[in-house]
Design a protein that fits this description.
By secondary structure, this protein is mainly α. It is 42% helix and 0% strand. The chain is built from four helices and no strands. The termini are far apart. Residues 25-104 form the PiggyBac transposable element-derived protein domain.
């Protein structure tokens, strides 16, 4: 390693980036990357994987996958010592617990 000035070549200029006329909601930005086609693909591949692993499909669907990913995003913000604490009587977090039960048989993403 040598300590020298970093020189770079950038093709971007000030006119390359501009603010949008209107800001979108966080959900709109999320939907640009996670569209309905992706949720369908995740559900299909999850069902296929469960068949390969256990011999039966868990029969998940795009809506359930969307809910599960939303729960995981919230769990990344609202942290609890244990996953079970989101459903426990004394620490129940309704935004998680009301979406899906903690003991779903063959949970879609726990395979």
């Amino acid at each position: 390693w040598r300590n020298k000035r970093f020189e770079h070549q950038s093709a971007a200029n000030e006119n390359t980036f501009r603010m949008p006329d209107q800001l979108s909601s966080p959900c709109s930005y999320f939907a640009r990357f996670f569209d309905e086609e992706l949720f369908q693909l995740i559900a299909e591949q999850t069902n296929l994987y469960s068949c390969q692993l256990r011999g039966t499909s868990i029969n998940t669907n795009p809506d359930e996958v969307r809910s599960f990913i939303g729960m995981k995003l919230i769990m990344g913000i609202v942290k609890m010592p244990s996953v079970d604490d989101y459903w426990s009587e004394g620490t129940r977090y309704q935004k998680i617990a009301n979406v899906m039960s903690v003991k779903r048989p063959m949970s879609p993403m726990s395979l």
